[in-house]
Amino acid sequence: MESKIVGTVMPVLELSMQPNDKVFAESGELSWMSMTVQMQTGTSVGGQQGGFMSALGRAMAAGGPGLLAFAAKLPGQIVPLDIAPGHGYMVHRHGFMCANIGVQFSIGFQQRLGAGVFGGTGFRMQKLTGQGTAWVELHGEVVVYDLQPGNTLRVHPGQVGMFQESVQFNIVTVPGIQNMFFGGSGLFLAALTGPGRVWLQSMSMQHLAHAIAGYLPKAG
Q1: Bridge-partner residues for 137, per DSSP?
Q2: d(CA 135, CA 154)
Q3: Is the peptide bond before 19 cis (omega within 30 degrees of 0)?
Q4: Which helix (H) or strand (E) holds 216?
Q5: How much is the pLDDT for 59?
């Protein structure tokens, strides 16, 4: 299987599939594909075990030769990741595009931060482990930092794009500071502590939604 990233601001991931190639993605993420490529669900798509219900929301592409494509949801970058045992990644909740079958995909972190935060859905990070290649999308401009052991960076949660699994992660609050973006629930920050590499993104779904909220029609 060969991969190619097409475009600049709103990139597209193109995969040239061969007959024995297989990748998986969350259902609904596919943009277009050749007639020779078939989509199907399975009982262990992305490492999920326990029957058909555990595979809902995942789709697997197989067949070919043919073309399979995924388009970015926001302006930014598509980043390929080489994943191996002991070299996994945590990715923001909208970041995972697709991966080889050997990659394990799961929820790595989830915490509710108050009713006004992230639309009340809480903060979530996706975990990619196992063996293979995965592709993720990071939004806006991407800034990379290599944190030394014990070095901590505090970041707006929506701007945490991705980090190596060696990085320690938790949510902290800044006392006495209220923030309209968080519905008056206070200021929450993600604390990232090295060693390891972190990728920060200048745009997030939450920031975009907040920026346009004032221009949307209101009921009544």
Answers
A1: 78
A2: 26
A3: no
A4: none
A5: 63
